[in-house]
Amino acid sequence: MSIGTTNRQAHTKVLEDLWRNTISAIPTDMGKLAYLASLRDPNSGLYHHYGLETVYSAEQSDRALRQMHVSVFYDWLKKLLANQKEDLEHYFRTVEGELGTILENWKVLEPYRSYVPAAADEAGRQLFMDDLRLLVDLMQRELFPPARQPTA
Question: Is residue 129 part of a domain?
Fold first, then answer.
């Protein structure tokens, strides 16, 4: 068995452990993206996960988390817009706060910007941002429909 094969097998094992013990328990893709992004140091860009790093090296953990983040990101982009909306609505039900406030913060602060993996291509990054802006606007309009003008 070559060293390359051994490294690939080790990497596959890290990914399987990560998925089985952590990521699969998160019910939404948006939740998975938020979680994975939270494991990335904003200055170094390195991913850290205490549990993984007790079993695997920091380098192996970073590589697996980075790959998982990219995979979940592109899985999100493959969803139909209606399915993205369902996932986002489910995600919002799992976070603290009132929906109207959450939507307003997402519109103004765009916290989802940090959910994009560094390795995402520009087209994927732009599509993600455009989809989320559209979905947040749509959800706000559904929650707070514009006042209708009285007819004379």
Answer: yes
Confirm if 101 and 145 have CB atoms less than 8 A apart.
no
Name the residue range of residue 131's domain.
3-143
CA distances from 22 to 1, 36, 50, 66, 95 (A): 30, 10, 12, 14, 18
* Cα–Cα distance for residue pair 25/85, rounded to 1 Å: 20
- Does residue 124 lie within any of the structural domains? yes
Give the closest residue to 81 by CA, choosing from 26, 141, 137.
137
**Span 46-90, pLDDT tens digits:** 999 988 888 888 999 999 999 999 999 999 999 999 999 999 999
Backbone angles phi, psi at 47, to 5 degrees: -95, 140
Q: Which of 2-6, 101-105, 109-113 has the lowest mean pLDDT?
A: 2-6
pLDDT of residue 1: 47
pLDDT digits (tens, 9 = 90+) for 13-33: 777 877 877 898 999 999 999
Q: How many domains does the chain have?
A: 1
pTM of the model: 0.87
DSSP code, position 147: P
Tokens 């979905």, located at residue: 135
Does 72 map to a domain? Answer: yes
Query: Which residues are 47's β-sheet partners?
Result: 40
